[in-house]
Amino acid sequence: MTARYDFASDNTAPAAPEALDALVAANTGFTSGYGTDPVSARAADLIRELLDADAEVRFVASGTAANAISLAALCRPFETVLAHEHAHVCTDETGAPGFFGQGLGLMRLPGASGRIDPESLEALAAPDVSYRQPIAALSLTNATEYGTVYSTEALEALTGPVKAKGYGVHLDGARLANAAAAGFDLKAVKRLGVDLLVVGGTKAGMPPTEAVVIFDRQLARRFDARLKQGGQLPSKGRFYAAPFIGMLESGAFLRHAAHANAMARRLAEAMPFKVRHAVEANGVFVEMDDATLGRLHAAGWFAYRFLDGSVRFMCSWATTTESVDQLAGVLKSIT
Amino acid sequence: MTARYDFASDNTAPAAPEALDALVAANTGFTSGYGTDPVSARAADLIRELLDADAEVRFVASGTAANAISLAALCRPFETVLAHEHAHVCTDETGAPGFFGQGLGLMRLPGASGRIDPESLEALAAPDVSYRQPIAALSLTNATEYGTVYSTEALEALTGPVKAKGYGVHLDGARLANAAAAGFDLKAVKRLGVDLLVVGGTKAGMPPTEAVVIFDRQLARRFDARLKQGGQLPSKGRFYAAPFIGMLESGAFLRHAAHANAMARRLAEAMPFKVRHAVEANGVFVEMDDATLGRLHAAGWFAYRFLDGSVRFMCSWATTTESVDQLAGVLKSIT
Amino acid sequence: MTARYDFASDNTAPAAPEALDALVAANTGFTSGYGTDPVSARAADLIRELLDADAEVRFVASGTAANAISLAALCRPFETVLAHEHAHVCTDETGAPGFFGQGLGLMRLPGASGRIDPESLEALAAPDVSYRQPIAALSLTNATEYGTVYSTEALEALTGPVKAKGYGVHLDGARLANAAAAGFDLKAVKRLGVDLLVVGGTKAGMPPTEAVVIFDRQLARRFDARLKQGGQLPSKGRFYAAPFIGMLESGAFLRHAAHANAMARRLAEAMPFKVRHAVEANGVFVEMDDATLGRLHAAGWFAYRFLDGSVRFMCSWATTTESVDQLAGVLKSIT
Amino acid sequence: MTARYDFASDNTAPAAPEALDALVAANTGFTSGYGTDPVSARAADLIRELLDADAEVRFVASGTAANAISLAALCRPFETVLAHEHAHVCTDETGAPGFFGQGLGLMRLPGASGRIDPESLEALAAPDVSYRQPIAALSLTNATEYGTVYSTEALEALTGPVKAKGYGVHLDGARLANAAAAGFDLKAVKRLGVDLLVVGGTKAGMPPTEAVVIFDRQLARRFDARLKQGGQLPSKGRFYAAPFIGMLESGAFLRHAAHANAMARRLAEAMPFKVRHAVEANGVFVEMDDATLGRLHAAGWFAYRFLDGSVRFMCSWATTTESVDQLAGVLKSIT
């Protein structure tokens, strides 16, 4: 029996053909390095178009590093970032924000289904005191870690008070495509006051690549030196830019995300376990006890227990209706 | 006129077909993440075979990060690393070793043509004093930044005294293939006492990828957490491992490097300018004044003035005899 | 009306005469620097005697830095430290552990009255996974932040499982004198497996000074370089060592702490508000609403609301029965 | 024979009576912490008066930390600081700037007798390139490490071009008193564009203390949190502030420095060895071979060989004409 990782994460899938074909197509001739090549320029244009915004764009290898470098750009080491307590930057990056930010803090905020509770922003009212790391930025995630999607209005309720204090805003868009496919307006990102956005390529079905979008031109100053020092200014930049060309020119970026979202809904509908969070993007989180999870693993299907205690199933561009139905059948058999 | 980057660096070339084909071939089915997949396992086996050594192997995106993380693993922030004054870690990584190592120092040693002068190791005899960062490791580069190659004996003369003090040894092998093609015995790396080796994929003709080889098993403890925090534990690990499979199984890793070295020799022979360093690997460094370099740039051929004042021409797997001859012609025309 | 800071903290008091006299006495003649002077040697001997242990001793200026440097010595940046959620390292040091430790994590454990609940050590059983910062050390505080004191047995229940895993142990002894005066056996510190101990001078009634005790000789290697880089290797070391001589030779170190503890008990007995934690050392924590605290401040007496919501009153060597009775009278008047 | 450290450094002396008396005088009553006390306020006023400038002032324990924190405040980790190659920040602080600045670089500039050669500022003209740490600040030292003193004009020639680029300026004033006593106009510091000044207390004859002067109010934002995180916001701030009161109110700050400078001149005049640098402040640097230095040590007098190969003798407030003459006699006897 071969182990099945189909639903273990949205990064267990191979790269989509549109992305890989573009990478292969870009692999021709000699070109200048470190993101100065025409492939990187073209991909940056497409991302600006996607966001309908004038901004600097860089292509990097790691979402963890992209997030951490962004937070470090918005803060000094003695400052702290507001983030959802279960945000990727808080729980899945081995302390990368503190490492790249030399000790910058994360103030973990509560909120149902991965969305920050706006009331927790009362933290902004606390006076600066020297023994505490003062707040300097807000980190958002859309789609959230629990497969829900912030509306523009919900984000405005969070970014508004933060921008009013003059603080920075980072948006982790590892699953921005899924959020957009669920109705989130990408053209609103700039208006919301986001300073630094990470557009996920990897989870959207590309080979490893993430785009860092720098809306605040002041932050762009010497950003390449920042990336280079952090190991995120690839010499062969075209390999990280090309997949975005393939996915954006073809519309596959949003189309594949819409498919992943639809597969998650299909799975949720067939799910014999209680679904804990609204299925708005590409994840399904269900209530399942350890014995049952053990039977699922024994049946050869991997799924992970998540931070809120639920078990997570992720869909991707490569998820098929057949595999959803097959998993649903297995799940029914182990209840 | 299209600008020609053929000789500007060995990372301006596209990926070799053997590497890219393997990447495409690995892009099938779902697989587990973070280097636990069978593609990564197979590539690691091939690297162990190449080095004839039992060692841990990881595949990462960035050579700059791989080097810096290696030095940080060998030192604490208050310690320093011996390195050639023109080594990549000293001059081309925007301070990445100090960033990843939180201030770890680099003690820059002299030496002709990029090779550390063994006499400069007298620094090892200096007593530890609290106001100075004490030595904790040696960083070597083979092939060197000046296209020369250390012999096993020359390396032994450097690693011997360092290991005798109980210090660590890092080998930057961004151009290890070129060194090997020039006669450097890869099977000697472990015997030399190297603790951490970075095997360059990118400059060897692959899409972005580097292999970190951990000879000292004690250093392997929690190395994945170290990499993850540093943004160098790719979720889709197979994309960084597969190119090594393609290049190693086919023998292209060494064959392409031998070709690059041969192209450099061909260029050196046709060179109308004084060649400053022995052409043992894939680079040719010549003496050229600014006016002449300006004429070369005006002719549409890029080349950079290097740290020792010479102008550098790099060859790669993709360099052709035609392009060498064409460049040689241009060079003659501007003398 | 002059504001009264008598009970605001145990660092609002002046230095005790024994400490200051010794400092003045040491201020004679020329001497060698950076802790190599005879005053520092004598003070180190006295601390070894106090602890009945062979250990390296250094004198530094800051408890925050001493704690943070200790944790950084026990961990690498990708690792984490177990600590009580309200420990000074977690709440009062502006992220110093993450700064000095370049992102090292703090795993905040619960426990009544500032003592870590031994059941929370089940965290030790969790397997290392690369996305999480693995545990590398335990940080303890005695006396605790809530004026309670760990018994030797209670500490053993915490250090035992941690040492069994091979991890490090740090003891923040900012109020070690108060713990000792309350019965904690200082000679047990080494036996408990503590690797690095910070003995508080400042809160014990000295001018600013803390002693770092290095029980694990392996950690002592190059510790001076670590301190120097961290700004904690004073050139005029005698000024930080001398106060310890004055306090230890005279017995004032424990005698003053016993007095502070007694003053806290006296205050607790006269307290018209509910005392929340056992008064074992020199602090009294009471339940008081905001309006009442406002009246206290309006009456010119400073006290701070603490992390658990209680209001804290600290006693020191300089607290008098008169001032305790005076405060008690004010407190009664505002109920 | 007791070893003589009189001339080994200017930090081997005891504290001057004016400084210590003020410390003792400040040791009365309870007071608020972390620099909010009246003693700190008064000392800050005196420093503003000394500099004839409106500025924020903080009192810290360590000059090494004060310098490093200042540079970290002026730079991000991927940037670099211009400094004299033999400046304290480059050679005597165990890499503290890189540690506190998480890898920030130091670009070492040449210049005779510790003064930066203005021509070396041509480095400012180099374009930012991502592989190099771009310049962000200039670090100056007055008096210099070689006992010379910059004139206002000489400093202007350095700060002018740096400020014109919008970069920051740090002045290490560990021996600012000696510079002032030699004629340097302290009221010019602000006009020169210095953003952060460290006024040395320790080498000026105080117990350990340094004043950080923040001329640029924008840098003052959250500076206390920065200091606290770096272990340099003393809870008992009055102990670091009081010595400045004693020295400044009495005029001893400049008077003692003038004495130290005079003692250096006296020593230079009696010196049987060639004096290498102009004796403008409190140090004398002479040419002496190893054998002779060995005889000096054997005679019980400590002196250190410095970075330029000369042997350094430092005078302080506590140096007497008798000890100068005694040393001169010993020196003559060993020639």
Q: What's the structural blueprint in terms of helices and strands?
A:
The structure is a homotetramer of 335-residue chains.
Chain A: H1 17-26, H2 38-51, E1 56-60, H3 63-74, E2 80-84, H4 88-91, H5 96-100, E3 105-109, E4 135-141, H6 152-164, E5 168-173, H7 176-181, H8 188-191, E6 196-200, E7 210-214, H9 217-220, H10 223-229, H11 238-249, H12 252-270, E8 283-286, H13 290-298, E9 304-305, E10 311-314, H14 321-334
Parallel strand pairs in A: 2-3, 2-4, 4-5, 5-6
Antiparallel strand pairs in A: 1-7, 6-7, 8-10, 9-10
Describe the structure.
The structure is a homotetramer of 335-residue chains. Helices cover 40% and strands 14% of the residues of chain A. The two termini of chain A are 21 Å apart. Chain A has helices at residues 17-26, 38-51, 63-74, 88-91, 96-100, 152-164, 176-181, 188-191, 217-220, 223-229, 238-249, 252-270, 290-298, 321-334, and strands at 56-60, 80-84, 105-109, 135-141, 168-173, 196-200, 210-214, 283-286, 304-305, 311-314. Chain A is α/β, with parallel strands linked by helices and 335 residues long. Chain A has a 7-stranded mixed beta sheet, with helices on both faces. A 3-stranded antiparallel beta sheet of chain A has the order 8-10-9, with helices on one face. The first copy, chain A, contains 14 helices and 10 strands. Chain A is globular. The interface between B and D is medium-sized, with 22 and 22 residues.
